[in-house]
Predict the structure.
Amino acid sequence: MKQLIANLMKVQLELKVPKTASGRFGKCRNAEMILEQAKPLCVKYGLLLTLSERMELLGERYYIVSTAKVTNLTDKNEKCSFETEGWAREQDKKPGTDDPQITGTSVSYARKYALQGLFAIDDSSDDPDMHGQQSEPQQHKQKTQSKQQSNSKQQDSKKPVLNAKQQQFVTNVKKYVHDTYAVTMKYDDEKLISAITEAKSASCKTVDQVGSYIFETIGVTTVGTEVKA
């Protein structure tokens, strides 16, 4: 296995497949271009490169799964191989294309992704060849990451920004409530700050006035959860 990995690494280091093909969204590379450059290098380092496909049904959609595999031929005593997979979903309809052509296109994309994984070919997220033909798992992953980042930004934007003096005031209010009413709380800081603002609008200025107002008028359970001893 060590010899196989060593030879594969040599191919990965020497293999160069620039994006020179013209696609609908700009320059791209395809499976045929990768194979054209990879085959001579595989021969050079004693690797047999093979491709195979199978169909996978996920939900109601069919996917073409392509497997790119290299087998070591330099050592008769070491018959081992290394493989990667690429997935591509068949489109429901494509204007001007019949069913065999749709399948053939999906096979080409699946092979491209499998070969890129096998030979460690970097493919940036803005690759124009990805538009409209991206595999479902990758699309879902990117959408989930984007949604998480968006939610995180929204949550951060909602968090109140306090200066040092305001932060100390909030801390003192918590301590006052704990010491005076013997209540231990797990506070929701956003709700607590809102309650402090309400208390101040009701002419409460000092820590004890604000703390008493929150506990006796607003209700301390509206700003957090009481922690039972």
Observations:
- The helical segments are 2-14, 31-44, 99-118, 136-158, 164-181, 189-201, 207-219.
- Confidence is low (pLDDT under 50) at residues 125-136.
- The beta strands are 21-23, 26-28, 47-58, 61-72, 81-89, 185-187, 224-226.
- The two ends are 60 Å apart (CA to CA).
